[in-house]
Amino acid sequence: MPRIPLRLLLLVPILAVLAPFCFAAETISLTVDATKSPEHLLRVHEVIPVKPGPVTIYYPKWIPGEHGPEGPISDVTGLKFEAGGKVIPWKRDTLDVFTFHVEVPSGVTELHARFDFIEPEGNSATDQLTVLEWNDALLYPAGTLAQQLSYEAKLILPEGWKFGSSLPVASDADGTVTFKPISLDLLVDSPVIAGRFYRAVDITPPGEPIHHELDLVADSEDALNLSKENQQQMTNLVAESGKLFGARHYRDYHFLLTLSDHVAHFGLEHHESNDSRLPERVLLSHEAGMALGGLLAHEFVHSWNGKFRRPADLAVPYYEQPMEDDLLWGYEGLTDYLGPMLAARSGLWSPEEYHEYLASIAASLGPGRPGRTWRPLLDTATGVAGLNDRSRGWFTWKRGTDYYDEGDLLWLEVATIIHRESHDQKSIDDFCQSFHGGLNNGPEVKTYTFEQLVAALNAIAPFDWATFFHTRLDSTAPEAPTGGIENGGWKVTYSGEPSKLGGRRGTPTDIYSVGLQLGPDGSVADSIYDGPAFKAGITSGMKIIGINGRVYSHDLLEDAIKDAKDSAKSISVIFVNDDYIKNATIDYHGGSRYPHLVRDDAKPDYLDDLIKAKASTK
Ligand SMILES: [Zn+2]
Question: How far is the CA of 266 from the centre of ligand 1 (A)?
Answer without folding.
Answer: 10
